[in-house]
Amino acid sequence: MPMAADLQTSAASARGEDLFTDPAYLRIRDVVYQISGIYHAEDKMYLLGGACTRRMAETKAKSPREYLDQLTVRADRDSELRKLLNEITIGETCLFRSQPQIDALKSVILPQLIAEKAQMGYRRLRVWSAGCSTGEEPYTLAMVLLEEREKLLKGWTFEIAATDLNDRSIEIAKAGVYGDYALRNTSAYYRRKYFTPMAGASAGAGEKLQIRDEVKAAIAFSRLNLNDPSKMLFMSGMDIIFCCNVLIYFDGASKRRVVQQFYSNLLPGGYFFLGHSESLFQVNDEFRLVHFPGTTAYWKGPAGKGATT
Amino acid sequence: MNANVAEQLNKKVRSIHSLPTPPVIFQPLLGLLQQPADRVNLKEVTRLVSYDESLAAMCLRIANSPLFGRAKTTESVQAAVLSLGIRRVGDILLTCCMQQMMPRGKWATDPAAFWRHSLGCALVTRKFAEMIEYPDVEKAYVAGLLHDLGIVVNSVTYPEEFSGVLEEAAKMCVPLLVVEEKRLGFTHCESGLILAETWRIPPDIRDVIQFHHGDGGAFDKNPLVSLVHLCDLLCRMRSLGHGYYEAQGVDFAADEAWLVLAQQFPRLAAMDLARFTFDLDAVVGEVTDLVNSIFAPTEAS
User: Fold this and answer.
1) Domain limits of chain B?
2) CA-nearest residue of chain A to B242?
3) B293 in contact with A at a CB cutoff of 8 Å?
């Protein structure tokens, strides 16, 4: 999830213009950490600072100190905190972002899971896009699975749960409207089959496509805080979980806790995907690292066996 | 492989005319690479290289690649040795030798793809060996470089059959070996061994050629085999394979070779394999560039 504001603010901090060294930022960091489990280490402070700067322009706070008050003592502090979290977690991504992940899913994981589950008499597959941002990932998964409807998944049902902490992202996701940038990896085949052009939009540059209802129908969107154990309990029984570039914002302790929760939420034999260069090294040693061509995933061993050998 | 197939293959490999005999420096070079670095004579190396101008030129070009540590001076082999170390230069020489030994005629495979895999595997094996503190990292390089010799054999001795093998393997997304067994009755491990014997390649590298896909309890006997087995797989999972998609998920830590190595090299258990893998992606581009610059031009000639 490269952040939209990331580029601007990192450029600024590279020039040494604003390193967000005001002690108020450190207090804000603590507040954010306490609430969301998202921790901004020193090298990530510019992300938090950038988010605060954008919110402060909105709330007319004159200093980080004043903004801290808006977050902690004002009556509407909860709503402002939510807005700040939105600003922190807003992502920028595209459909079909990781072809190696999709290939691994289609050519290795699905056939394997389907064979194993069919043997036990199951015909239902559950996938969770955790930290789905503005919907690109779950829609991609839905299209990939829909393509298998008459092949691997013939006679099967599947559900995709898509959650994010940011409710503004969820709203955008539900609308399912994407521009050229988000569609840059989407082939003509998928565009034709699963999208409709937005009425009134001009052709060519700036064209927007809307995802079709049949794709939307495969996904249940909801807001979810990964750091809320009681809510996480509802997400059990998953076959595959995607959580790409979300955990990078978490500190070690909450990362370990959340990953452990993902592990519990997966069915035996299920797979867990992280972002392109994220690893669970020293975060979790129950998951097994599995290499696929061009990508890696984590696997929860089969039932009855210890996860580690 | 049944006895009939074995005999036929043996005959065929030994009578290959399109496989050039190794350059004169090949045997002395292999001998040199088996010695501890402090016993290798610099003069001897320089003398070996000066046998062949084009070899020396290619050697210096490779020495200047970032993959090999980039020799500060590339004007002379002697300078390269001083800058890179004698064993590293030995590796480079062997790489050039190998390239010269490759048949010029008809290949069922894309020679550049073969080179990307071989050179990639050599580099990855050396890196992996360093990581787990395997005592002879340069030997690891040589083993990685030569492990798939049998693919050259198959490609040249059975060009039509082998291109069928490649096609089917790519279509089915399965390892080459599986289709070789089915369609040829033997694998590149077996044909590679025959060539290795003909070329008098030392026994520990011969083990690697024969057993890098497992079998024969070789993982236990020779850690070099385990090392190359794992690195070959890593390369195939990271865009340095045989040029097609292999649909498999590899759980390295559960691989027999990994378990065997972990007993002898405790560093393996503590290794961050995911990070090692991410680091490999930087190698892929450089290997491709090097193969394009070094091998592709001569291939056309």
Assistant:
1) 21-101, 104-292
2) A293
3) no
